[in-house]
Structure formats: structure tokens, C-alpha cells
Amino acid sequence: MRFQIGEKVIFLHESGGGTVRKISELTYFVEDETGFERPFSESELAKIHSTNYKLKANEMNELLVNDTIETVRHSVHKESKTGYLKPIDVWEIDLHIETITESHSGLTNGQILNKQLTIFRSFVTDARKKHIRKLIVIHGIGEGVLKEEVRAILKKIDGAEFFDASYQEYGKGATQVELRYSI
Questions:
Q1: 172 vs 10, which has greater pLDDT?
Q2: Last residue in a domain, options 39, 61, 83
Q3: pTM, whole model, 2 decimals?
Q4: Of 72, 145, 151, 148, which Cα lies nearest the Cα of 112?
């Protein structure tokens, strides 16, 4: 079994998460942020590994998941018009299948790609909800299929500009995304 009683998890197909309270055969019973115990299959959940976030209802969308989304959230500083430095959030996601799932054996290339794209879409949605301006998407080099699919999704998002990320930091396998928001 992948999850243990007492582990904090996030839901993959809806917003929110909770704590595993009971396990019965292939079903995990998760107490959600409203206090209700709900059944889920293993494929509908992901572990929360980060210690920087507490599981509270108003913070659920801030959770970054190691099994599902290998992210690094950090601040950089940029000089504002007033001359003071202000923090800018940068979210980073690694879409390599090895970082987003414990095992991908038995999955077809199409299933792997679908899983990666589902996680990417969720990541971008969460970033837009938080008005994050800069994203780094690590897709790897490979044959370029994932990179092209990621960029096709980004082309459909108003206010999204993207280009190759810094070669010095990420090599050829990453895309930098700048998100603009209308007031």
C-alpha cells in the first residue's frame, strides 16, 4: 500500500486534501478539510511531503506535492519603482515521470504523457489562482513531445509568455513562463 494511516494527502482530480484515516482493500478513507471522511482510490491521491505547509482549509491550494508536483517555491528580489527590493514568487515544477509518481511501470507512453499534462494543468491553475508571475517547467529533452504539449497548452492561456529557461541553470530541458494578469 502506498499511503499510511495518518498521512496527509492532496486530491488529484479536485481541489483540497486531507488525512488518511482508514484503509480498506484498495480504498483509502480520507478526512477532508471539512471533517468528512471520503473514499478514494490510490490513483486519486498524492502524498504531501512538504513540511513548509500546514493542512488547513484556507491553505489547501498552497500545498505543493512531492509525489505529484516536484516543485520548489522560492523568492527572488527585484527592485521596485520606489527603489526597495520586493519579493517575487517563482514556482518550479519537474514533470519527469520519475518525480511525479512512485512507479510508472505498466503505463503506456500516452498514459505517462496524460499524467504529466494533467499535473502541469493543475500546477498552472494553482499558480494563476495565487497570481504567481514566473514559472519554471522542467520537461527534459527527450524527443520533445512533452515540451511541445506544454507549450501548446501555454499558447491557449491569455497573458502567458514562454521561452527556453536559462541554459546555465536548466540546460535545454526547461521552459520559463511569465504570467501577466489584468487588473
A1: 172
A2: 61
A3: 0.55
A4: 145
Distance of CA 83 to the CA centre of its chain: 33
List the one residue out of 75, 62, 87, 70 whose CA is nearest residue 137: 70
Q: Which residue has the cell 501548446?
A: 152
User: How would you classify the pairing of strands 134-138 and 85-94?
Assistant: parallel
Model confidence over 54-98: pLDDT tens digits? 333 333 333 333 333 333 333 343 344 444 444 457 889 989 888
Q: Do 55 and 79 lie in a common domain? A: no
Which of 114, 120, 49 lies closest to 91 in space, CA to CA? Answer: 120
Number of domains in the chain: 2
Distance from C-alpha of 149 to C-alpha of 87, rounded to nearest angstrom: 31
Cα dist from 147 to 112, 115, 117, whole Å: 14, 14, 10
Q: Is residue 3 part of a domain?
A: no
Q: Is 149 in contact with 117 (CB distance < 8 Å)?
A: yes
